[in-house]
Amino acid sequence: MVEQLSEGSKIIEITQKILGIPSPQAELFENEPMVQEFIKNIVKPYVEELGLLVRLDARGNFILCLRRS
Q1: pLDDT tens digits, residue range 16-53?
Q2: Which of 3, 15, 35, 38 has a C-alpha 20 to 30 A away from that of 26?
Q3: Contact 43/62 with Cβ under 8 angstroms?
Q4: Burial of residue 14 (number of CB atoms within 10 Å: 0-12, 13-18, 19+)
Q5: What distance in Å separates the CA atoms of residue 67 and residue 34, rounded to the nearest whole number?
Q6: 24 against 13, higher pLDDT
Q7: Domain residue limits, the chain
Q8: What gap in Å lies between CA 58 and CA 49, rounded to an integer?
Q9: Which H/E stretch holds residue 11?
């Protein structure tokens, strides 16, 4: 998967898809519940669908785990 992501066209495709999804702008920034829901329900499942390992920590930070083969 990492090899696929190294192709510029795949990165552009993923970025366009994520940026095409409306997301809230709020005073609480990353602590805003709507932002947390967006990450949890939209971004995380999409990235997992690409076969990448993702987790959210206790503060809601999005953590993408990549391994070297």
Answers
A1: 877 787 766 677 777 778 878 888 988 898 888 888 89
A2: 15
A3: yes
A4: middle
A5: 31
A6: 13
A7: 2-13+25-65
A8: 22
A9: helix 8-19
3-class secondary structure, 21: coil
**Amino acid 4: pLDDT:** 56
- Residue 2 has phi, psi (to 5 degrees) of -60, -40
Q: What are the helix and strand counts (H, E) for the chain?
A: 4, 2
pLDDT of residue 1: 52
Q: Given this model, what pLDDT does residue 58 score?
A: 87
Measure the CA angle with vertex 38, ends 17 and 62; round to 5°. Answer: 90
CB 36 within 8 A of CB 60: yes
